Amino acid sequence: MAEPVLSVQHLMKRFGGLTATDDLSLEVMPGELHALIGPNGAGKTTAIGQIMGEIRPDAGRILFLGEEITRLSTPARVRRGLSRSFQITQLLEDDTAEANVALAVQARAGHGFRFWRDASRDARLLEPAGAALDQVGLPPARWNLPVADLSHGERKQLELAVALATGPRLLLLDEPMAGLGASESLRMTEVLRALKGRIPILLVEHDMDAVFSLADRISVLVYGHCIASGTPAQIRADPQVRAAYLSEEEAV
Amino acid sequence: MRNLWRDERSWTVLLLVLAAFIPVVAPMLDSPATTGLATRIAIYAIAASSLNLLLGQGGLVSFGHAAYFGLGGYVVGILYAHWSSGDPFLGLIPGSNDLLVTMPLAILVGGLGAAIIGALSLRTAGVQFIMITLAFAQMLFFLFVSLQAYGGDDGLAIRRVAPVLGMNLRDPATLYWICLGLLALWLFLMDRVTRSRFGRVLAGVRQGERRMAAIGIRTYLYKLVAFVIAGMGAAMAGALMVNYARFVSPDMMHWTKSGELMVMVILGGLGTLVGPVLGAAALVGLEYTLSGLTEHWQFVLGPILVVIVLFARGGLMGAVRRIAGPPALHNAQPLPPAELPPAKPVPESAAHG
Prior knowledge:
Strand order of the largest sheet of chain A: 6-7-8-3-9-10
Number of helices of chain A: 9
Largest sheet of chain A: 6 strands, mixed
Number of strands of chain B: 2
CATH architecture of the largest domain in chain A: 3-Layer(aba) Sandwich
Strand content of chain B: under 5%
Oligomer: heterodimer
């Protein structure tokens, strides 16, 4: 059996009296799209924060590509190939969409200490940036607009393009469909379907149509603990999941 | 097509070319003092522009920028003192009154000072960062106040400066043109640095540290390098100021001087190329005009600054932009969502590759 890309083992995180992550273990296999679902406040975003190194876990280990990364800083993890998108977009608002992606390309190339050439005309940055923007389906007419002028849907697309431009070997997507309209959601689903198989993805999402149509495997998180993990069909049939989660949503 | 007149760089070049005629025009208008005033503006413009790299580009609120201005000034002053007394500094370094020697040394010392202060203060952020940069600058201020060997509180006077490449620095017009030339060179450097890959990272630091970490950039070293570049610029301005005033004292690094530099940047327009120059001109010009009118000029200056900052969003450059129209970058009109072109279909080859 192939080695998992990401292996989270017995992760614990408490905020005061609240246990946000409770003995969480999960794996993402090569080429897999693994969805992480759960009711609001289940600790999905906290889990992503710990995998990325933005939040330090109280206990547990995180292995990425076979190496332990539990104590590494966020930039060090990104350089090893971890990349995330944010639920609440974290973009450089004054810069253009293209410049946002180009900076991620530049970060990946590692050539930041160059003081002379105009970076906004550097084809070595713009070409990969354009490729990432194409991949998420942002029309070229919008590339040179400042982020502040983009719609919510376009910002979500851009958020994904920036995550892609770092050259990830695992993508952590935190609710890429949050706040999108029905047609925008479908479009994002197709973008993710195109990525699926090429880059392993850990997808946190509330849009159950998207999750059940995309995921190879689904893990259900309740109160920071993983109560079930399996194929979409298994999850749909699991009585515990239905009780804890799906029945409330009436979604499936 | 880029509109030349909306490009800030063409404005900057025009402004510098016009400014070069001041020593020619001023005597005709019977106001020889204008050249001296313009020299001070050019010198403060370099210092303010260097602070703008931190404040406007990197969003780093350094409240101790006068420290490097003063350090640059003291390098010139101390080297002159040793040149005139004949005994070398620390028994090693001979003194000098040659700008070609003292200026590079001043820039070096300014950069070194900024590297040390920056390395320590950049470990903090927010209000702590503001306070620690202020504290370091005040430490230097009191160090020089207590240095009796170099005049302490009273400072040092500089009497004879060697000609530079055959140019007499005591001639106000010559010194002005040197200052203006260095300002032009500095602004050119700032324009390049701001647009470079390094400048892109710095702008990213201002807009979102969290985003920078998420794309794999460790920001500390970038901030430190920006600090060193800015410190070198301020030290160059300080060296020029001492050559102009022929005097250096701890007042050059007092916290009120740091505040003045900040006011110039904010008044002119944060993060713009020519803004700090306009801010320096406005502040020095207002001080000069108002202090000629009344003894209580600061009482008048305060409200004027408040009005400009409140009503000209983005400072003087913000006002200029609103009059001249938006810059070329923003010319593309955002489409209303209904008219969005349809997304490109995902290419078949991209799926399951």
